[in-house]
Amino acid sequence: MSVAMFELTLSRRPPARVRGFTLIELLVAIGVLALMAVLTWRGLDGISRAQGQLQQRSDEVQTLQATLGQWTADLDALAEQPNWKSLDWDGRSMRLLRYDSSANADGLRVVAWVRRGVGGAAQWVRWQSGVMTTRPQLELAWLNAQRWAQTPSPEDSAREVKTIALEDWQIFYYRGNAWTNPLSSAGTSTAAAAPAPAATASDAAPAPATPAKQEPLPDGVRLVLTLPDGQALSGTLTRDWVRPVLGGAP
């Protein structure tokens, strides 16, 4: 009897009340979740920014590599013509005569490199003429390359390619087992018996009656680039080129 009454008493006991969250507890939980969301967003934003910077640096390095590869390809394809200066450096721009690299092409091209302000920043810019097969075409293209380096026309600007940001650049020739400045007297050839023409005459486009002085190509060309700060690579970069076949045309 006592056992039955005990069971009946237990069955009539009211159920325990379920305790909920208080307002303060809810506010604390919401604050913790908000803090975690902010920290997560900052972490994702930092990762995104880091990826963007890495991609920019990678693009800059690839552009620099492609530009130096084009520079080397231009020198590898240097062409020598009678009574013609195939390589000319005036302290600001470089002009060169090279073979055309198009498939099944046997013509020549004039290529020029110059440092020029573009959009408020200095860049290294490359210009290339059309394919030439006659002497008058060569003379005109050589003149256009010099004009483009100074004051480019809209037609000449359409042929240029902007490459990398550049603060300064220098050129040196390797002759007589030494690196010399092409603009100095030590950097010029004295093998010819006839006196050398004036610097202004050799820099300008040669007329048929006064062809440009033909100088032997240097055994090497040293390119010294000064890259601005804030790039993937900055400071001084030196690139040496050696003629593939010394003593003869490439």
What would your notes on this structure say?
The chain is α+β, with helices and mostly antiparallel strands and 250 residues long. The protein has one domain (55-242). The chain contains 5 helices and 9 strands. It has helices at residues 2-12, 23-76, 135-150, 154-157, 199-203, and strands spanning 87-89, 93-99, 108-118, 121-128, 160-165, 168-175, 178-180, 220-227, 235-242. The strands form 2 sheets. It has a 5-stranded antiparallel β-sheet with strand order 1-2-3-4-5. Strands 7-6-8-9 form a 4-stranded antiparallel β-sheet, covered by helices on one side. The protein is elongated and about 110 Å long.
Determine the fraction of residues in helical runs and give it as a percent range. Answer: 25-40%
Distance between the termini: 120 Å
Low-confidence stretches: 189-211
**Rg estimate, integer Å:** 36 Å
| Overall 3D shape | elongated
Order of helices and strands: HHEEEEHHEEEHEE
